[in-house]
Design brief:
This protein is mostly helical. It has two domains: about 90 residues, no CATH class; about 55 residues. It is about 75% helix and about 0% strand. It has five helices and no strands.
Length: about 140
């Protein structure tokens, strides 16, 4: 149950962050805003690390496969694409497409067992659920 509430909070924070970042971009520029977002994220992470965790940064050099360390670089492009989509589509439409895309890609990662994720079986009901989400976007967009 805690995982559910954390996921809900994550989605809410992503929406608010996207709006904030889009507004900052209007006054600064997309890559300046993106750099600031990543810098402030780094500072928060370092502060929390100093206050609580203190695990060794050297453990990062043990991560295999090495491409798994690209999460931060991907994060910069996530921030950019969220800003641009919210700028062009507005927050609600943008988030609908983002969440639907996340669900489809995450399901494909599970079905094909990509990136070390345990392979899951293909289920028609899950595909139908995604279809309903897409139908919801169509209804939301054109009403």
């Amino acid at each position: 149950m805690l995982g559910l509430w954390i996921a809900v909070l994550s989605g809410a924070l992503m929406s608010v962050q996207g709006v904030f970042n889009t507004q900052v971009t209007k006054q600064s520029g997309v890559w300046v805003a993106n750099a600031f977002v990543q810098l402030t994220a780094l500072l928060v992470c370092l502060a929390v690390w100093l206050a609580s965790d203190r695990s060794s940064f050297a453990s990062l050099f043990q991560v295999e496969p090495k491409y798994m360390l690209l999460g931060g670089a991907i994060g910069a492009f996530i921030t950019y694409t969220v800003i641009k989509s919210m700028e062009q589509l507005g927050p609600a439409r943008s988030v609908m497409f983002i969440v639907t895309s996340q669900l489809i890609v995450a399901y494909l990662i599970e079905v094909f067992g990509l990136f070390g994720v345990e392979k899951q079986s293909w289920e028609v009901k899950k595909v139908l659920g995604m279809g309903i989400m897409i139908a919801g976007i169509v209804i939301f967009k054109w009403t």
